[in-house]
Amino acid sequence: LVIFHFSCTTLQCRQSMDSSRSEVFDSDKQPSVKSRYRMNTYLDVPEDKTGKFYLLFTLKERISELIASLKVFEAHGINIVHIESRPSRSHAGCYEFLIECNAMDKQVKSVFKTLQDMAENVTIQTFGPIHECNGAMISYLQVINTNNSNIIIDVVPWFPKKIKDLDLFADRVLTYGSELDADHPGFKDEVYRKRRQLFADIAHNYRHGQPIPRIEYTKEETETWGVIYKELKKLYPTHACREFNHIFPLLEQNCGYSEKSIPQLQDVSDFLKECTGFTVRPVAGLLSSRDFLAGLAFRVFHTTQYIRHSSAPKYTPEPDVCHELLGHVPLFADPNFAQFSQEIGLSSLGAPDEVIQKLATVNSFFLFFTPQTAPCTVLNFHSTVVLVHSGIWTLRTRRQTKSIRSRITVFIWGIAVHPFNPEITATTEYPITSYQPKYFLAQSFENAKEQLIKWASAISRPFNIRYDPYTQRIQILDNTEILNHVVHDVRNDLQLVESTLMKLST
């Protein structure tokens, strides 16, 4: 049995949506790190506060059609900065034109009304103008679709559509990185601050597909790791779940986990990829909830490389390499947990802010063994062994047939333990600098996973998506051609299952 617990350094939920460049841009042509810091957003938004939008429309294969449509932009005083064309897949004898423009909302609407009478199909994707929300620069992606007179308008946040798109926001950390608050243990340590800057530079300059730079950790950093490693390894056999204890020795054998050695992220990433397809990539600090969950959709876990200050080895106000590698990473080698994590990530793509907050709240403590400060304690609670530590609580019954009924609320040390319910858990507020006054209990990992997937499936979104593991892209299921490919893949899988069953039965 598992009790869910909010950790002091797990993912913080914030109402923020990060924007990025559209997929029409060449992802290889990234702005420099220095220029990124000067930008308030990933988009190069014009100073006159106009928004950036991409208009995709379908015209018959005639020169006069294109000339007439371009004159519409000229008549409205809109400057075209980029244009592309391709044969239409859905309209025979037609071409699709992609035009990038900077314009005001009124101009966009006016052009849209004019073009809908000229074109076979019109789609407008609009970014901005950018505005600030709770200190974070955000932008909505507006999708306007029309097929002749049928107009459907949906507004959804931008989300990555291919794994390389993670490069567009991986260096947008909310807190820390190379900067430290005054109450941080390493605030006055100039040597520590310089090391943090080194780790931040590595993360900022990393791009998908590159090998993760190997770090030569100092003696002091390795000793800090060793203090935590030695204590936690004593506690894992009795306090960690079965899956965690199965995987951890494999990390020692394959990734260099030991008391005297801090594992390299590249070795860890290679191991996870062989186990479940998950990989890790370096990050300078805490990402927004939306960005962190988007990474999970591609089976990517953003991981810090720096280590907490040596003056406080058993406490960190932020996620460090100990928190990541000794807490989060092991379970990503478990197929069930990996699948669940990706499902949560996929559910977040294009979801509204309020849904992101709920998903992040649930994900921030769901089965994450996140060692923080205090040592673990073992209690006898009736016929159940209650395992308590600062990162997560687990309950193991002495009898496999025993279960905890959904209506029971128990109290441990005066703290209420409620039955796990995703809808309730997702809306529960919790302090991030102290232990929370409430915990949630699920009967098993599978039970909790089923509840969460069912709850996430009800998320309101104007489209469905599917992850293609071969191309590592997100497919938006919005036309019959894509659905036919999905059906074809499902049929092939079913035929393989049927053939295998026949061979096993003979």
Architecture of the largest domain in CATH? Orthogonal Bundle
Biggest sheet overview? 7 strands, mixed
Mean pLDDT rating? 73
Radius of gyration: 25 Å
Strand order of the largest sheet: 14-15-16-1-19-18-17
The domain count comes to 4
CATH top level class name of the largest domain: Mainly Alpha
Provide the CATH topology of the largest domain.
Phenylalanine Hydroxylase
Low-confidence stretches: 1-48, 128-153, 367-409
Number of DSSP strands? 21
The proportion of strand residues reads 15-25%
Terminal CA distance reads 40 Å
Going by helix content, strand content and strand pairing, the class is: alpha+beta
Question: Which overall shape is indicated by the principal axes computed on the Cα atoms?
Answer: globular
- Name the CATH homologous superfamily of the largest domain: Aromatic amino acid hydroxylase
Helical percentage = 25-40%
* Tally of helical segments: 14
Please tell me about this protein's structure:
Belongs to the biopterin-dependent aromatic amino acid hydroxylase family. Its EC number is 1.14.16.1. The chain has 506 residues and is α+β, with helices and mostly antiparallel strands. It has four domains: 2-8 and 374-447, no CATH class; 33-157, Alpha-Beta Plaits (2-Layer Sandwich); 163-363, Orthogonal Bundle (Phenylalanine Hydroxylase); 464-505, no CATH class. The chain contains 14 helices and 21 strands. The chain has helices spanning 33-38, 63-75, 105-115, 190-205, 219-239, 242-255, 265-276, 289-297, 321-328, 335-348, 353-363, 422-426, 445-456, 480-505, and strands at 2-4, 51-60, 79-87, 94-103, 121-127, 131-133, 136-138, 140-147, 150-157, 173-175, 279-282, 286-287, 300-303, 377-381, 384-388, 393-397, 410-412, 415-419, 438-442, 464-468, 473-477. The chain has a seven-stranded mixed sheet with strand order 14-15-16-1-19-18-17. It has a six-stranded antiparallel sheet with strand order 3-4-2-5-8-9. The model is unreliable at 1-48, 128-153 and 367-409 (pLDDT under 50).
